[in-house]
Design brief:
Structural class: alpha+beta
Shape: globular
Helix content: 25-40%
Number of strands: 15
Distance between the termini: 42 Å
CATH topology: HIT family, subunit A
Radius of gyration: 18 Å
Number of helices: 8
Strand content: 15-25%
Order of helices and strands: HEEHEEEHEEHEEEHEEEEHEHH
C-alpha cells in the first residue's frame, strides 16, 4: 500500500529512530567547516570516526569474488530500513551509512542499472517524495559520478543542507545565471553544466512535475551533448550528476569520481563536500573547492 499523502516525513523520523535502536542504521559521525571560494561558502564535512560503509563495501567485494556474483544490498533490501512504498515501480529506504540525517534512497523494485538513463517513472517517484517536504533530490549517474551501488537509486536529503546559510550552498552563485532560452550557465562554474529553472508551484501536482521535469532532463542531456532517452532501458552516454530542487535543476557531466583520494558525488556540486580527515580538508582548502569540482567534471567546451 502506498504511503498516505503528508505522512512521509513522520515515517522517515519513526523508521530512523527504530533503525538506530536496532543497529540497522549506522550513521557516519562528522564535524564540519565552511570554506570560502568563488563568492560562496562550501560546506565541508570531516569524518570524525571510521566509516562502516567502507568496511561493508570491502565485504561486498569479498563476497562477489568468492561467489562470482555482485552483491546487491537493495535486492533484497534490509527490512529495518524500509520507509514506504512510493509507487508500483519504486520504494524508499533509509541510507544505511548516512552522513546527512534522514537521507532517503528511492530505489527501483526490480534491478535496473545505475548507468541507465532516468525514466518518467523515476521522476514520478522522485516528485511524490519531493512534494512531501523541502528537499534536494539527486542522482549519481554511474560510478564515475560517485554512485556506490549499481542498482538504480535516486536520493533525497532535507533542506537546508548546512546549519547556516542558504538552503543549498551554491544558491548565491545561481542568482548570476546567464540564460540562453530555457538553459542557463552559471559564470562562477568553471566546468560544463546545464542549469534550468522549474516552473513555480509545480510541486503541487507531482504527476505534472514529473512529466515536465523529465522532459526538461531529456533536453538538458541534449544541451550537454549527451544521449537523451529514446526508449526503455537505454544506457547513458557518459557519467553525470543531476540535482533537483523545487525551483531548479542542474546537470553536470563527469570525467571521474576522485580528486586525489577525495570522492565527489552530486552533493559536491551543491556545495557540500565530505572528506575523510584533516589532510584531505587541507588539500581542498589549498586547491579551492571550485578547482576540485572543475577537475572531476568536463571543461566548458567539452561536450560529450
Amino acid at each position: 500500500m502506498l504511503f498516505q499523502k503528508g505522512s512521509l516525513r513522520r515515517q522517515i523520523v519513526r523508521v530512523t529512530e527504530q533503525a538506530l535502536s536496532s543497529g540497522a542504521l549506522l550513521p557516519s559521525p562528522t564535524e564540519y567547516e565552511f570554506v570560502e571560494d568563488s563568492g560562496m561558502r562550501f560546506f565541508v564535512r570531516i569524518l570524525s570516526g571510521p566509516r562502516q560503509k567502507d568496511e561493508a563495501r570491502e565485504q561486498q567485494e569479498k563476497e562477489a569474488s568468492a561467489t562470482g556474483r555482485q552483491v546487491n544490498p537493495f535486492l533484497p533490501y534490509e527490512g529495518d530500513l524500509f520507509v514506504a512504498d512510493i509507487s508500483e515501480t519504486h520504494l524508499a529506504i533509509l541510507n544505511k551509512f548516512n552522513v546527512v540525517e534522514h537521507h532517503l534512497l528511492i530505489i527501483t523494485r526490480g534491478f535496473e542499472d545505475q548507468e541507465k538513463l532516468l525514466t518518467l517513472n523515476d521522476f514520478k517517484a522522485l516528485w511524490v517524495c519531493m512534494a512531501e517536504y523541502n528537499a534536494l533530490g539527486f542522482y549519481n549517474a554511474g560510478e564515475a559520478a560517485g554512485a556506490s551501488q549499481r542498482h538504480k537509486h535516486l536520493q533525497m536529503v532535507p533542506l537546508p543542507l548546512a546549519p547556516e546559510g542558504p538552503q543549498v550552498p551554491i544558491e548565491p552563485l545561481l542568482a548570476n545565471t546567464r540564460f540562453n532560452g530555457v538553459f542557463g550557465a552559471v559564470p562562477a562554474f568553471p566546468f560544463l553544466h546545464v542549469f534550468a529553472h522549474i516552473e513555480p508551484g509545480i510541486v503541487k501536482s507531482p504527476p505534472d512535475a514529473a512529466k515536465k521535469t523529465f522532459e526538461l532532463y531529456c533536453a538538458m542531456l541534449r544541451e550537454a551533448g549527451m544521449t537523451s532517452p529514446v526508449g526503455k532501458g537505454q544506457r547513458q552516454s557518459g557519467p553525470y550528476c543531476l540535482l533537483v530542487t523545487r525551483g531548479w535543476m542542474l546537470l553536470v557531466p563527469r570525467s571521474r569520481e576522485f580528486f586525489d583520494a577525495i570522492s565527489i558525488n552530486s552533493l559536491g556540486f551543491a556545495g557540500a563536500f565530505l572528506v575523510r580527515n584533516q589532510e584531505q580538508l587541507e588539500r581542498v582548502k589549498s586547491c579551492g573547492p571550485m578547482t576540485v569540482l572543475r577537475e572531476v567534471a568536463l571543461p566548458v567546451s567539452g561536450k560529450q
